[in-house]
Amino acid sequence: MSNVAPSPMSARPGGPLTGTAHVPGDKSISHRALILGAMSVGRTRITGLLEGQDVLDTARAMRAMGARIERLNPGEWIVDGVGVGGFGEPEGVIDCGNSGTGVRLIMGAVATTPITVTFTGDASLSRRPMRRITDPLALFGAEIIAREGGLLPVTIRGAQDAVPVRYQTPVASAQIKSAVLLAGLNAPGQTVVIEAEPTRDHTERMLTGFGATITTEITPEGRVITLTGQPELLGQNVAVPRDPSSAAFPVAAALIVPGSEVRVPGISRNPTRDGLFVTLQEMGADLTWENPRDEGGEPVADLIVRHSTLHGVEVPAERAASMIDEFPILSVVAAMAQGKTVMNGVAELRVKESDRIDAMARGLRDNGVSVDETPDSMTVHGRGVIPGGGAPAATHLDHRIAMSFLVAGLAAQAPVRVDDGGAIATSFPDFVRLMRNLGADLGPDA
Ligand SMILES: O=C(O)C1=C[C@@H](OP(=O)(O)O)[C@@H](O)[C@H](O)C1
Ligand SMILES: C=C(OP(=O)(O)O)C(=O)O
Predict the structure, then answer these.
(1) Is 157 annotated as a binding residue?
(2) Where is phosphoenolpyruvate bound in this sequence (predicted)?
(3) 169, HSE (Cβ side, Cα atoms, 13 Å)
(4) Which of 325, 355, 398, 420 is catalytic?
(5) CB 410 within 8 A of CB 440
(6) Which pLDDT belongs to residue 394?
(7) 27-157+164-228 in CATH: which number?
(8) Relative to the CA of 173, which ligand 1 atom is closest?
(9) Is any ligand 2 atom within 6 A of the Cβ of residue 101?
(10) Distance CA 250, CA 276 (A)
(11) Residue 104 phi/psi, 5° resolution?
């Protein structure tokens, strides 16, 4: 993506947003469905797969290591797996593009199979920390060579005789937890991950669905997750629910554009992902959930959201992991609320596709909103208005920064511009069309 010419975009204030927003499949679950499908025996059928670039890069990686993967229809894919321990050595470098989830989970998946794999990524991914993954993978017996600072490219020589690991994650991260669990699949005995704060649990849920023995115990240390190694995973049918992190954008837009009412069907209500909705409700958001159901081991419901008068809130640090990707868009909603919104315990935002605290603070300030930051917090001083009209916000190859500023423009007093919307295709390729269908005036800069 870094070699492609930037695509400047802008959004302009306009009338209410109305209609139905069919947001794409969940990104986290889509990566995991492809990886676990590839690590299973037999056929996995996936419906609702997110066809964003991040997930397509994971599919390509799984193919390069021997899985047969085919797209039958939009969102409908089949994976014929190679079984636990069955990955073949890829001939080329595995390029995970912009995707932290892709590269970190696949590193875990290969670390206990005796093959050598070199991973790379785009300019954004090449700045992100990888030692948090390679350190625990070395405990299994994998050999690792990385660039200075533990950065990509990283080469992993998977362990020949892997040993199981007991690992306490040093930061709240589902990617670290998942990398260790995926490595544990091909280690004999029990691999244990302990996390002080709960993080998204899709790996645990899906491993159970594919036939692994995995338990989660709540203890004073936190969540203790125990996986029994070397199971035979069997191909499954996976129905991917719609992504709450993508839903956040039309939901936020409807809340801040007067007169709006939008329906967002079929989104995951997994409690490890619902921090944004809890926070919006505390701010006074009019959110109605209908038709709760279970789809493929994940709770799902339809959401109706109406324009609301909002007030600032304090978001507790303990909630950060359950809404970690939603802080950029929350900061836009917070600007349209009355009063101060304080987001605590968000240091991890500094090591995402961009430093999201810095990127949001700068872009909001340029568009007339007052923001304070500390190393691990961000405070937006909401005045119920975004003046807009500033310099194009720098997006640093970060899809969520681009979409957040475009949503801001829909409720601002003057257009809001971004320097490059290209990265939106990593997680929400249909974003512009979907938002325009609701009545939003946004798109490439003329
Ligand atoms: O496991 C996952 O699918 C993800 C975990 C989160 O990252 P961390 O584990 O680094 O917090 C999140 O930011 C990312 O978008 C997806
Ligand atoms: C942080 C994100 O993704 P990843 O870590 O997979 O790049 C995200 O989608 O907001």
Answers:
(1) no
(2) 27, 100, 128, 175, 356, 400
(3) 24
(4) 325
(5) yes
(6) 98
(7) 3.65.10.10
(8) 9
(9) yes
(10) 13
(11) -75, -40
Beta bridge partners of 380: 341, 371
Cβ atoms within 10 A of the Cβ of 348, count? 17
**Annotation marks residue 325 as catalytic:** yes
Q: Is 383 marked as binding a ligand? A: no
**Which residues in the chain are classed under CATH 3.65.10.10?**
9-25+241-444, 27-157+164-228
CA angle 416, 420, 424 (to 5 degrees): 95
* CA angle 180–183–187, rounded 5-degree value: 120
| Ligand 1 pocket by Cβ (under 6 Å) | 28, 101, 173-175, 178, 200, 324-325, 348
Domain 9-25+241-444 adopts which CATH fold? UDP-n-acetylglucosamine1-carboxyvinyl-transferase; Chain (3.65.10)
Short-list 95, 91, 94, CA closest to 121? 95
- Please list the ranges in the chain whose pLDDT falls under 50: 1-2
Dihedral sign for Cα atoms in the order 13, 14, 20, 24: negative
Residue 400 is assigned to a ligand binding site: yes
Ligand 2 pocket test target in 350, 353, 356, 357 with most atoms within 8 Å of CB = 353
**pLDDT score at 363:** 98
